[in-house]
Structures are given as structure tokens and as C-alpha cells.
Amino acid sequence: MAKMILSGKGRRWALTGHPWVYADDVAEGKAQPGELISVAGPNNDHLGWALFSTSSRIALRFVTRAEEQPNREFWLGLVQRAIKVRADAGFLDPEGACRLLSGDADGLPGFVADRYGTVLVLQCGTQGADRMRDFLIELVREALPFPLTAVVDRSDTSVRRFENLESNVETLDGTVDEAVLVRDGDLQYEVDIFQGHKTGHYLDQATNRIRAARGAEGKRVLDAFSYDGLFGIRAALAGAESVLCLEQNEASGQRLLRNAELNGVADRVTVEKTNCMKALRAKAEEGDRYGLVIIDPPAFARNRREIEGAERGYVELNRRGVALCEPGGRLVTASCSYNVRPEDFADFLTKAINLSGREAWLEELTGSSLDHPHRITLPETQYLKCAFLRVG
Ligand SMILES: C[S@@+](CC[C@H](N)C(=O)[O-])C[C@H]1O[C@@H](n2cnc3c(N)ncnc32)[C@H](O)[C@@H]1O
To answer: Tens of pLDDT along 110-139?
Structure first.
């Protein structure tokens, strides 16, 4: 069994509880890509067990600080615990969808498993996750209270390049229709598992969509960066007078229209294929007003160095979002950049509100749905911020 020795600095960092160790903090040791190894400090004091990467800046990802080497029972326990968390939070309806395993947040480095009905879609982001993939699928099958009909590997995430891994998309088991149909309470939607963003869908916003739809009855709604339209369609189901979705991606817009049909709200939901940055400014300048405005852009800061550019983007978008709200209207605005911390986001929103010349009240600042746990020792797992503002 391979072993790695950390530097003194590496040891001190490991003892903070953060599960990642950077390559610079490894003093000695050799191992295979993705191998489970034992980790020790410079005095050979055992620090735990971690999965190793030969090429990433994050060389080690701890899976346990215990003495004993993780065995099958250990891994099954992690998978069972993760699935129980989803069951307790009401995410385990076999017709519904959820993130079953959320990588390092659930103690399973780099391994994401999303469930759309009975179809499991995996995304491996590390060498260790690739190595453990088939074993973890077996454990998911064992722990889930219902059978899976298909398993797809959607490992085409860009982070794989840091691990020197090729992109890999394949159906591992069963057959999957082009569009998988999901039912979430009174909402139905299509998921494009092979071409859609992430593993096909933005599962992390599920609870925020339900919150946003409250009070949408009778309102004009603007859903910017709509993807396949589920913020807007939720609002339409709650009785919105009309919903205008803005999205630049053609395939997402087409799926959005099919989702509107599926939910019987096609007469009140329209989509404009457009660049939201320009469209929001134009609509605000034209004096367009809405009772509910949703802004859910892609990540603007991939690292801390990009924060200035990100600030300009968020301030500009939210300034327009505030202007587009009728007096008493609501702005629901999100940031999914981990590098934009909650306090940065609050600062950007304050600047946007000042520039708009309006007043606003923060009713809630939420994160992702409970199937995307925020592990306290790993701040990187708190990436999504969603502010619910009442605009005066
Ligand atoms: C975070 S996702 C939105 C998720 C969506 N609100 C949901 O609830 O599933 C961001 C979306 O913005 C789209 N997008 C990115 N840049 C854009 C732009 N400048 N104008 C319009 N859409 C854009 C992407 O295609 C993607 O669908």
C-alpha cells in the first residue's frame, strides 16, 4: 500500500480539517493515478487515507482520518448515508430527480451521481473517481431502495483536464431515450442526458425555483438565463400572467418550449433567443416592468483573479434586474461562482441597487437544494448563492 509524507506546512493544513492537500505540500512518496494511499506527517504520524492524483494541483483528497484502511463496508456506509440524506429531504421519489452523491461534499472525492427517474448519470472529475467508478455504481445499486434501469457516464466536465483525463461519455448499462422525463410534484420536464449542461440539468436550483414561484400569481415574469425554463415554468404553474424566458442556447430554448407544453402552460410562456447582457439593458431602457425578475447567469469568476470582471458583470446585470421590477416586485438573483463569496455577492447587489436609484429588501439569501450538501470543512461546496429581494 502506497504512503505519502506531507511537509510540516502540509500537515498543519491537513489538521485544519480541509480534505484537500496541494502537491507542493507533499514531501515524499509515490503512487499510481487515483490510488488510495495512507498519509502521514513528517514525523510519520498517521493522518488518514486519501485518493491520489498524479497531475492535479490537488494531489490528495482525504476520505477518512481514521487509522484503518477504508474497506467495502466503509464505502457502502458513505453511499448509504448520502442516500439517506436525500431520502430525509424528500428527494427520493422514483419519478423525480436529485443529486444522489455530491463528490467531496459526501466524502466521495470527485464522484458525482445524479438520478433522473431510474437513470443514473455519473460525472467523474478525478483520477480516483475514475478508478472507483464501477465499484461505487455497485454500492449505489445496493443502497437505493428501487432498481436503476440505466447508467450513463457523462464524464465530459472540463475539470478532467487538470487530472490529465480524457472526456468520456458512454452508456454503461441499459438503454436511455434521448429525452428522459422527470416528474417533480406537479412539474414535469425533459432532461437531455447526453447534450444538456452538467449531467443534463441544474438540479441545485430545484428548491429556489419553488421559493421564487411563491407570489407569482397574476404577475408578469422575466426569467433571464433560463436554460430549459424551469424557474419560469414553475412561476407559470403558480398562476403567473405571462413568462418571458431569455436564453442564448437554441437547444435549451427548444426544450423549454416542450417543457411548457408538458406542463400545460405553453400559452403563457415564451422564449427569446438572445444575449441577456444586451437584452436586459434594452428592456430596462424601454421601461419594461415585471412583478418577478429571475437572473441566473453562468459562473463569472473561475478563480479569485477574475473577481473584478465578475463584479462588473453582476453589478450591471442586477442593476438592470432592479430597474425591470415594478414597485413592490421581486428580484431573484443567483451567483454560482464559488470565488464570489456570499459577502462579495451582497456587496455587488448593494452597488447595483445604489446605481438603480431604487430601494430593496433582502428577504432570503439561500444556497443550493439539500441534495447538494455544503460540507463545512470544504468551503468550495458552498458555491451557489440565491438572493430573494423585494424592490421598492
Ligand atoms: C446557470 S444556467 C441557468 C440555469 C437555469 N436558470 C435553471 O434554472 O435551470 C445559465 C444559462 O445561461 C445561458 N447563457 C450563458 N450566457 C448567456 C448570455 N449572455 N445570454 C443568454 N443566455 C446565456 C446558458 O446557456 C445557460 O443555459
So the answer is: 999 999 999 999 999 999 999 999 999 999
Distance in angstroms (rounded) separating the CA atoms of residues 269 and 252: 14
Same domain, 7 and 48: yes
Specify whether 112 is located in the same domain as 44: no
Tally the domains of the chain: 3
Q: What share of the chain is helix, strand, coil (3-state, %, to 5)?
A: 35, 30, 35
Ligand 1 centre to CA of 298 (Å) is 6
Concatenate the DSSP letters of all residues of 101-138 into one string: EEGGGGT-TTEEEEEETTEEEEEE-SHHHHHHHHHHHH
How far, in Å, is the centroid of ligand 1 from the Cα of 174? 31
How far apart are the C-alpha atoms of 254 and 350, rounded to whole Å? Answer: 35
Residue 245 lies in a domain: yes
Grid cell locating 370: 439539500
Task: Single out the residue of 205, 200, 207, 226 nearest to residue 115, CA to CA.
Answer: 200
Q: Which of 248, 275, 295, 338 to mutate to test the pocket of ligand 1 (most atoms within 8 A of CB)?
A: 248
Collect all residues with Cβ–Cβ distance below 8 Å to 269 and sequence separation of at least 6.
229, 232, 233, 236, 242, 243, 245, 256, 257, 260
Domain coverage including residue 169: 72-180
Q: What is the pLDDT, as a whole number, of residue 295?
A: 98
